[in-house]
Amino acid sequence: VSQSRYPYLWNGVVYNNSGTYEHQVATQNGCDSTAFLYLTIHNPQQSSENIFACDSFYWWPADETYTASGFYSVIVPDEFGCPSTFELDLTLFPSPLEPLLFSSNAECPGDSIFVISEFDSNSEIFWFGPNGFSSVQPNFSVLADELQLGTYYAFVDDGNCKSDTSSLIVEIVEINKLAGGDFPNILTINN
Q1: How far is CA 91 from CA 86, 119, 163, in A?
Q2: What are phi and psi of 79, to 5 degrees?
Q3: Is residue 4 classed as helix, strand or coil in its secondary structure?
Q4: Spatial separation of the C-alpha atoms in residues 148 and 140, rounded to whole Å
């Protein structure tokens, strides 16, 4: 029996506690008859939690995804059909925007390539890339060589949430990839 359904009335007697109770009655034939009540009172369950999350939060007791901070409460039946109350004090933080990544061009092996990022100044950037590269500097340079060329990734963290990850391919621009009007710094002068 759910605690919300007690006191429990049985054969004119009110019961407030779990236990085994008996009631004796005389039948029409004058025989004694005993009835037993096996009473278990289930106390209602109550759970409260404080959650800090980014952007949204799925809360299983309500089977809902919340996109706003607030106080939420739901009552659901437990395995005995008794009401269980779940409470959620939810604080949501917006995730920072992913960083914008740029690089200069290198035309020859050994040239310096400058890698630059733009992101919210209240955040910290985290880079990772080829051959175990990692950095927390917003801008850096690498040499155009086979160990440092490749895809670099970065995300930002504002202390509460992380952004999505951005990527940047750092490579040598081949002459045949140069746009019309761009040409190498080699001029031949005809006599």
Answers
A1: 16, 24, 18
A2: -65, -15
A3: helix
A4: 12
Which tokens hold the place of 136? 């927390």
What whole-number distance in Å separates Cα of residue 129 and Cα of residue 123?
20
Give the 3-state secondary structure of residue 174: coil
Vertex 94 angle, CA 151 and 152, to 5°: 5
From first to last of its 191 residues, the chain has per-residue pLDDT tens of 555 555 788 888 888 888 899 988 877 777 888 888 888 877 778 899 999 999 999 999 999 999 999 999 999 988 877 888 999 999 999 999 999 999 998 888 889 999 999 999 899 999 999 999 999 999 999 999 989 999 999 999 999 999 999 999 998 876 555 455 554 554 445 44
Would you say how long the chain is, in residues? 191
Distance from C-alpha of 89 to C-alpha of 71, rounded to nearest angstrom: 5
- CA atoms of 52 and 50, how far apart (whole Å): 7
As a dihedral over the C-alpha atoms of residue 4, residue 6, residue 10, residue 12, rounded to 10 degrees, the angle is -130
Contact 41, 6 (CB under 8 A): yes
Cβ contact 146:152 at 8 Å? no
